[in-house]
Amino acid sequence: MRILIVTDAWAPQVNGVVRTLQAVRAELGGMGHEVSLISPDQFASLPCPTYPEIRLALARGRAVGQRMEAAAPDAIHIATEGPLGLAARAWCLRRGVPFTTAYHTQFPDYVARRTGLPASWFWRYIRWFHGRAEAVLVSTPTMERTLKAHGLSQTRLWGRGVDLNCFTPEAAPHPALANLPRPIQLYVGRVAVEKNIEAFLRTSSVGIKVVVGSGPALARLRQQYPDALFLGSLHGKELASAYAGADVFVFPSRTD
Predict the structure, then answer these.
(1) What is the reported pLDDT for 256?
(2) Is Chloroplast among this UniProt entry's keywords (predicted)?
(3) Which residues contact 48 (CB under 8 A, 6 or more apart)?
(4) Exposure of 61 by Cβ count < 10 A (0-12 exposed, 13-18 middle, 19+ buried)?
(5) What DSSP letter does each residue of 74-127 carry, written as one string?
(6) Is the dihedral of CA 231, 139, 74, 24 positive or negative?
(7) Which stretches of the chain are DSSP H helices?
(8) What share of the chain is helix, strand, coil (3-state, %, to 5)?
(9) What does the pLDDT average to over 131-148?
(10) ∠ at Cα 167 (163, 168), nearest 5°?
(11) Where in the chain is the domain with CATH 3.40.50.2000?
(12) Helix and strand element counts for the chain (H, E)
């Protein structure tokens, strides 16, 4: 099967959406499917306001449509609600081509935290964007209930997996965690305001707090919380070693 994925999030970005899509493409390819991609690196782009690490594609609808036609897909999945997702959605609707979408994060809450505007405003956009999809893929039952409460009933559960070749109980602890006071409390993820990391860093507890990841809030948090250990982005076996060396995993986000 020829599968086309349209996404506004792709490398060199490091986030959950990119990691998910990279894994999906690799797994589908291993199953014998032909997977093509339309992503921001194929177009001129500009930095996203308040989050310059994310590039927004400056792509005309015609250019996106030409790439979609050239891919001649049997199935189309629109992974994100950004400029490329909008162009792909419009192309599909004009031609009566079915497509699926995915809801990766609590987008209205995420944008509300960055803009100061009410989340209810952005739910209108979410309902409009995903409402015409054949199915909206969600990662958890909680996310499924949230979308149904907002009028999107065509949800399908799309769980996440773990690479057991990398993340195993036998993984050696990361050397940076050796001889640290216990318990070692670990956060892994993007270092940004919507992840609510400061709620974790402000807590008074024994041991040490460790943050793995990068993002727009990293420099400020490093300066503001010198007692915490910031390791930056880790990948693969190095990331597995950070998990192996920790005692507690902490994920304070309210938008995931």
Answers:
(1) 77
(2) no
(3) 54, 55, 56
(4) middle
(5) SEEEE--SSHHHHHHHHHHHHHT---EEEE-S-HHHHHHHHH-S-HHHHHHHHH
(6) positive
(7) 16-30, 61-71, 83-95, 107-115, 119-130, 141-149, 197-201, 218-224, 236-245
(8) 40, 20, 40
(9) 96
(10) 120
(11) 2-157, 175-249
(12) 9, 12
Query: Domain 2-157: which CATH class?
Result: alpha beta
- CA 132 – CA 101 distance, rounded (Å): 9
Tell me which CATH code domain 175-249 carries: 3.40.50.2000
- Whole-structure pTM value: 0.86
pLDDT of residue 149: 95
| Lookup result for tokens 């024994």 | 206
Q: Which residue has the tokens 């995420």?
A: 110
State both tokens at 128. 């409009």
Distances (CA, A) of 204 to 4, 98, 198: 48, 51, 12
Query: What DSSP state is assigned to residue 247?
Result: S
Residue 1 has pLDDT above 90, yes or no: yes
